Amino acid sequence: MTVLTLALSKGRILEESLPMLAKVGLDPAGDIDRLLRVPSRTPGVSLLIIRPADVPTYVAYGAADLGIVGKDVLMENGSADLYEPLDLDIAKCRLSVAAKKDAPARDPRRRLRVATKYPEIARRHFAAKGEQVEIIKLYGSMELAPLVGLSDVIVDLVATGGTLRANGLIETEIICQVSSRIVVNKAAMKTKHAAIQGLLDKLARSGGKRKAA
Ligand SMILES: Nc1ncnc2c1ncn2[C@@H]1O[C@H](COP(=O)(O)OP(=O)(O)OP(=O)(O)O)[C@@H](O)[C@H]1O
Ligand SMILES: O=P(O)(O)OC[C@H]1O[C@H](OP(=O)(O)OP(=O)(O)O)[C@H](O)[C@@H]1O
Q: Which is a Gene Ontology cellular component entry for this protein (predicted)?
């Protein structure tokens, strides 16, 4: 019988979280190739392997009790429906503004064009500076946009800076630091408190940083 369901962000976060999950017996019990729901090595805890952007939705609706997801996704989609008790300190990067290294000066009467997968974060960032911008929503390869004149700047994740450098872009502003977080369904935190707390304690002991309440 499933006692707890944990939603994992497939891709980079899954790869980076597996060593920590293995330490506490929460890694998949078998091969996860193509499987979307798998038992973990802890009886009663099952795992969902889903796209990062879907994790907050599964947890908010209670289809999963907990999830692992990047702070970038939480900031973009809003996380008011979720508790965020632990910072796992993995998949670390930052959200930044970047532009072409040799970009010519822009006509100040024209609004800055910003290409990004994070329209809400970008809008909030520029609004806080009193700047009205035109946001162009993209789904990947943001670095291409300034190179082909689609946008003046991008808002994207930067880790080593290698992708920016390879494409002749420079980081002009850091918006915030990003790492992966544990999120918890608010109702489950009450109804399954002991099981969830036990799991959070284990993850905290294996490297997760507790967030102030
Ligand atoms: N270069 C990076 N270094 C460290 N962490 C990163 C890096 N890029 C992304 N991340 C983190 O990993 C998360 C997932 O990134 P990943 O590239 O695996 O998926 P995605 O391409 O955003 O998702 P999807 O498959 O749904 O398009 C991001 O939300 C972010 O928190
Ligand atoms: O500063 P760096 O170390 O180069 O990392 C930054 C890159 O990493 C992410 O892309 P990812 O490699 O996940 O590819 P994707 O966006 O196509 O999934 C991000 O979107 C950047 O393109």
A: cytoplasm
